[in-house]
Each structure stands twice: as structure tokens, then as C-alpha cells.
Design a protein that fits this description.
By secondary structure, this protein is mainly α. Helix content is about 50%, strand content about 10%. It contains 19 helices and nine strands. Strand 2 and strand 3 form a beta hairpin. Helix 2 packs across helix 5, helix 7 packs across helix 13 and helix 13 packs antiparallel against helix 14. It is globular, with a radius of gyration of 27 Å.
């Protein structure tokens, strides 16, 4: 058996059950994927483990799709999530269907029926909804569409039965966020130093939970000179994540920077530091002076813990570590946040909301400069920022329409152009002035807001 590579394609010969030599073509979206598949085929041919794609049923196709396409292209979290969808909601319901019997009508009925399927418990996490949501159904459709596309390329199917599928409508609910006033009220009430540091980092640096918990001291510059010159920063290049051991093995530890020793030997998951999902997630974020000083204080606390516990302290160089050095997981921060909210009757939000708050206020501070905010947030494209946060600058756009009405239409063009040019930002209302003065009265708050504005 031989294997050749052409643009976006892998071609190999094989001998069928009748002893006849045949050619098989596999098509991929990119040259890189095709080259990876070629290496995989050659390795398996040498080892004698190569299996020709010959799926007859949907579950067969999905198994081959994961082992060939998924292993080569998916990140670990993506592999785990899609594997869960397949084993919980696709294979049990329609996995036995023969590929030749799958029609667009069959798939439309399947998608509609999924809305009555109860959500499974995954990794002992209680689901947010009793039944599958429209969003999950659309994720299942995305997975099947790609798998069927690959089935067509492997010549296992004549057409993709879900290309024009009818999907349930998904309503996008805008995430609730705290105002600056509520945030600083919460920080004043917070007596948990670890939570306070987490909230400040998420708000000032637009961090995701995993990025924040994966921060190590070698990626932080908080020297006195850097703080003085406004150059204190963090470098985001990894994230903390708990992954399924099976996924870790199947993907051969792809993207894993470090694997922590298990706290319990029987666990089926592993805690790892892994590369971010996208290249743009690797970024430098400048720190406000107040937050840099919080990190200095945290560093001193850890040094004291090392001295106190000696050899019992396992040093992984983490910013967010327990008293014995072990990494702190997201559920610890989430529980502390919920307690702060419940104890002080604060508006309910989830931790990820502080990343949204951060991006929202940065856009307001810099007049809607989405490119600079993308640099802090690590979004793959500016379009992603625009799609989610464009409503933030709607007030300014409405103001532009009002100015046109007042200056050109109501005034019939009589207002001198110099007067229009002189008018820039409308005078803040009395309530806005009072709010600003109240915020600036708090030294830490003033320093944070001023440094944020300066760095942007």
C-alpha cells in the first residue's frame, strides 16, 4: 500500500476483499490537515494498524471522523465536548442508522426531537437546563454537518443530508454585568483576598477564568521600575483546564504544557496547563498600577507560605495556588463569588461577566476602538468584538444622529460650521458628574480607572 499527498488531498492504494487494487482519496480543508493525515496513514501502514474508512452506519462514520479528522484538528476541549455530544445525544438515538438511509427529512425530525431530550450530567456537573436547548441542537448540527461532509469526501455518502436542515431558533440573551459602582461596592464588601484579586484581574485585563488561573510568575512583570513607568504587564500564554483522561490519551497530550499530579488516584480526569485555543489568545496585557501592587502583595504572601510550610509546599509557580501550592480551580472562585453575592444581596452575575464588563468599559473609555480592545481580550477577530459589543457605542452613534438633526435639519444649515466643530463631547449630566466624583473619591478606584484610561 502506498500513500501520496496532493494539494488538500491524500491518495493511497489498497487491495479490496476481492484482491483488486483500488485508489482512495481523502479531501481536507487545508494542506496542513492533508499533510497530517498523510503522516498518520504512513505511520499506521508501517505499524500494520491502518484501517480503511468503510463506515456503514452513522456511529461508524462518527468513530472514523473522530479518529482521523478530530484527532488531527481539534483542541482537547473541542474533542471532549464533541465526543460528549456524540455519545450522549447522537449514537443512542440515531447511531444505528445506515448512511444510505439518512435523508434530510430524517435529520429534520431528529433535530426537532432533540428539544424533548433530557440533558445528561457530564463530569458530575449539574446541567443548567432540564432539556436540550436550541444552542446545543445547533452545536450537534454543526458537528454532524462536518462529519457528513467528510463522509462525502471519503466517498461513503453521495450527499450531505443536513446542508439545508431546519433548525430551532436560538434566542441570544444578553449577559448581565455589574456597573462600575456595583463592582467597587462588591470589592469594598469582599473579605476574600483571593476573590478580590481574581475580580480585579478579570476586570482590568479582560481575562477568561482558565487564563487567570493558569497565570505563572514568570509571565508577570511587576517590578518597581515597570510599575513606575506604566509598563507592568502580564503575558497570557496558557490556561488551566480539567480534561478527560481518555481525551488526553487519544490526542496524545496535544497542546498540554504541564500535567499536574492527581490529588486522587481514582479520578478519570486530569488537571493541566495547556496552550490557549487560538493564537490571538496569546497576548501581553498591561496592568493598572493598583492591580500590579495587588500582585506584588500576593507574591509576598506566597513567599511567606513557602517559608511556613517548607517542603510541604509544592511550588508550581502559580499566582492562584492553595496554601500547599496546588492549583485553584474555577469552582473555588465561583463558590466565593456566589457567597459574596448572596451575603450582600448583590445583582447575580457569573464570573465570566467581569470579562464582559472589562471589554464594555474599555470600549467606552477609548471611544469604541475595537482593535485595541481585541488586543487585550484575545478575540480571534475584531469582527467578534463588533458582533458582541457594538451596542456599547450605540449611545455615541445616536448622539451623532441627534447632532445632525439639531445642526443641519432643525437649523436648516444656519449654524456656523465652526460652532459644530467646536462641539465635541456633550456636557455630562449632573448625576453623571456626581457619580464620577463619588468614584474618584475612592483612591484605589480612581487609580484603577485612570490607569485603565492611560493604558488604552
Amino acid at each position: 500500500m502506498s500513500c501520496l499527498w496532493e494539494e488538500n488531498k491524500v491518495v493511497y492504494t489498497y487491495t479490496d476483499d476481492s484482491g483488486v487494487k483500488r485508489q482512495k482519496w481523502e479531501t481536507f480543508a487545508t494542506n496542513a490537515e492533508a499533510k497530517k493525515r498523510k503522516k498518520q496513514v504512513e505511520f499506521e501502514q508501517d505499524e500494520g494498524t491502518f484501517i480503511l474508512p468503510t463506515a456503514k452506519t452513522l456511529s461508524d462514520l462518527l468513530e472514523e471522523y473522530m479518529s482521523i479528522y478530530g484527532v488531527n484538528t481539534w483542541a482537547m476541549s473541542t474533542y471532549e465536548a464533541r465526543r460528549s455530544l456524540i455519545f450522549n445525544y447522537i449514537n443512542p438515538l440515531i447511531g444505528d442508522l445506515k448512511l444510505d438511509d439518512i435523508t434530510p427529512r430524517t435529520m429534520d425530525k431528529f433535530y426537532q426531537s432533540l428539544l424533548t431530550v433530557k440533558t445528561k450530567v457530564v463530569n458530575n456537573r449539574k446541567p443548567n437546563n432540564e432539556y436540550l436547548t436550541a444552542h446545543t441542537v445547533r452545536e450537534i448540527h454543526k458537528l454532524l454537518r462536518n462529519a457528513f461532509n467528510q463522509g462525502v469526501k471519503w466517498e461513503l455518502m453521495s450527499r450531505n443530508p443536513v446542508l439545508n436542515a431546519t433548525l430551532p431558533k436560538e434566542e441570544h440573551k444578553q449577559r448581565d454585568i455589574w456597573t462600575v459602582e456595583t463592582l467597587f461596592k462588591a470589592l469594598e464588601l469582599c473579605d476574600d483576598d483571593m476573590l478580590a484579586l481574581a475580580l480585579n484581574l478579570a476586570f482590568s485585563c479582560s481575562l477568561r477564568m482558565g487564563e487567570m488561573l493558569g497565570l505563572t510568575w514568570d509571565c508577570i512583570d511587576i517590578s518597581e521600575n515597570s510599575i513606575k513607568n506604566g509598563k507592568a504587564n502580564i503575558f497570557v500564554n496558557k490556561e488551566l483546564q480539567r480534561v478527560n483522561r481518555d481525551a488526553l490519551e487519544k490526542l496524545n497530550g496535544k497542546g498540554v504544557v504541564f500535567k499536574f499530579p492527581p490529588a486522587l488516584s481514582s479520578t478519570h480526569t486530569a488537571l493541566v496547563l495547556k496552550e490557549p485555543k487560538t493564537k490571538t489568545s496569546v497576548r501581553k496585557v498591561f496592568l493598572p498600577k493598583t492591580v500590579a501592587e495587588m500582585l506584588q502583595k500576593r507574591f509576598e504572601e506566597i513567599e511567606n507560605l513557602k517559608e511556613l510550610f517548607g517542603e510541604e509546599y509544592t511550588d508550581y509557580n502559580l499566582v492562584f495556588a492553595s496554601s500547599c501550592g496546588r492549583p485553584i480551580e474555577g469552582q473555588v472562585i465561583n463558590r466565593a463569588l456566589k457567597k459574596l453575592i448572596d451575603d450582600n444581596d448583590l445583582p447575580p452575575v457569573v464570573f465570566h461577566s467581569f470579562r464582559h464588563s472589562s471589554i464594555t468599559y474599555k470600549l467606552k473609555l477609548n471611544g469604541g476602538d475595537m482593535k485595541s480592545v481585541q488586543g487585550d481580550s484575545g478575540h480571534a477577530q475584531v469582527k467578534m468584538v463588533a458582533d458582541v459589543y457594538s451596542h456599547i457605542i450605540d449611545d455615541d452613534r445616536r448622539l451623532n444622529a441627534q447632532r445632525f438633526e439639531e445642526q443641519f435639519y432643525q437649523g436648516r444649515g444656519q449654524t456656523p460650521i465652526e460652532e459644530v466643530q467646536a462641539e465635541t463631547v456633550p456636557e455630562a449630566s449632573q448625576s453623571d458628574k456626581e457619580m464620577l466624583l463619588k468614584l474618584l473619591a475612592n483612591p484605589e478606584m480612581a487609580a484603577l480607572l485612570k490607569t485603565l484610561a492611560k493604558n488604552l
